[in-house]
Specification:
Strand content: 15-25%
Number of strands: 12
Number of helices: 11
Largest sheet: 8 strands, mixed
Number of domains: 2
Strand order of the largest sheet: 3-2-6-7-8-9-1-10
Shape: globular
Helix content: 25-40%
Distance between the termini: 45 Å
């Protein structure tokens, strides 16, 4: 393990940002934390988490897939992708780091999504351990340790030092890039911080969330529950929960006439929308109740049933804080748990 004096944080960011694009959580004009490309003078936000997750860097909200040029009966197919450059995400929290594992299971399974794959190969994820989790955090319910985040390299921070450790070859390269600023040591300080963070996490309001029974074996009683109608009654179908979620992976593909050709692009979609999965014959989910049920059944039942028990949620708490009617996955889980116990 290596440590760097906290007063050298700016120098650390400069050392990394000089060689390749570096993105850190920083406050925008509205005072909200967002991942922003580092430049001289940009300060890292103290916020626990960003408004939107780091998912955007690997699965962007909109993305051009292919262009078509038509001349008479001739069609030219153009791949708009340019060579990806290496980049670093610094300050990713444990919940978002786990979300990449979930997205990998979707986009890196056969057939591999090469657009996503390229970004993952070129991106280095440097995580930052939490010390003061918010009341909306419940990552521990999914086996995530906020005090020991995953990623290519890990960082812990206290009032005096940053402590760094590598987990992958990418992480080794990251540590090598700041070697001149670092010295050995920090294991004891990190252990003390981890113990304190875990103690605090255990006292958060949602630390005891029990997900027992949310699995493929209980699919039918959960799917057929009469509680869905009541739970979804106030849902606006706005899709906010899906757009701030670090693990949602649904998208739509559309063609746009540019005037001298056609551009095919994909963009995020939401199972909460009335035209989601709409086909020539119509929509298989005609009511908000059905669409509401789809979202939470996928996170809590369908995904773990098909992925060795791993849930499609990481407990980041964004949907808890952003839903305009205060409906979220925790309320749904607590209410439906009565059906399987």
């Amino acid at each position: 393990m290596r440590k760097i004096a906290k007063e050298k944080l700016g120098a650390l960011l400069a050392a990394v940002g000089r060689d390749k694009p570096l993105y850190i959580p920083a406050l925008d004009a509205s005072g909200q934390a967002r991942f922003t490309r580092w430049h001289e003078g940009l300060e890292m936000a103290r916020a626990l988490n960003t408004v939107r997750s780091a998912k955007d860097f690997f699965f962007p909200q909109t993305e051009n897939l292919v262009d078509f040029k038509v001349k008479g009966k001739q069609i030219e197919i153009i791949d708009p992708r340019s060579e990806q450059e290496d980049f670093v995400l610094f300050g990713v929290r444990a919940c978002d780091a786990r979300s990449f594992e979930i997205l990998d299971k979707v986009f890196l399974a056969d057939p591999v999504d090469t657009y996503y794959q390229s970004r993952r190969e070129h991106g280095t994820v440097v995580t930052l351990a939490c010390t003061q989790p918010e009341e909306t955090c419940f990552c521990s319910a999914f086996g995530i340790d906020a005090a020991a985040p995953e990623g290519d390299a890990q960082v812990w921070m206290d009032e005096e030092y940053l402590y760094l450790s590598a987990r992958t070859q990418k992480g080794d390269k990251f540590l090598e890039s700041v070697r001149a600023l670092a010295e050995d040591g920090g294991e004891d300080a990190v252990q003390r911080q981890q113990e304190e963070t875990r103690r605090v996490m255990a006292k958060t309001p949602l630390a005891g969330l029990n997900l027992e029974g949310f699995d493929g074996e209980h699919l039918n009683p959960l799917f057929d529950s009469e509680k869905w109608a009541e739970l979804s009654q106030a849902c606006l179908g706005c899709g906010t929960c899906t757009f701030v979620c670090p693990t949602c992976q649904c998208y739509d593909i559309r063609d746009f006439d540019t005037g001298d050709g056609v551009r095919r692009f994909r963009c995020w979609d939401s199972c909460m929308y009335s035209d989601f999965t709409k086909m020539a014959h119509g929509n298989p989910r005609l009511t908000q109740v059905e669409r509401f049920r789809q979202r939470f059944m996928h996170k809590l039942v369908y995904f773990p049933a098909n992925n060795d028990g791993q849930y499609g949620c990481v407990g980041c708490g964004r949907c808890l804080s952003k839903c305009p009617i205060s409906m979220n996955i925790v309320k749904v889980a607590k209410e439906l748990s009565k059906e399987v116990r």
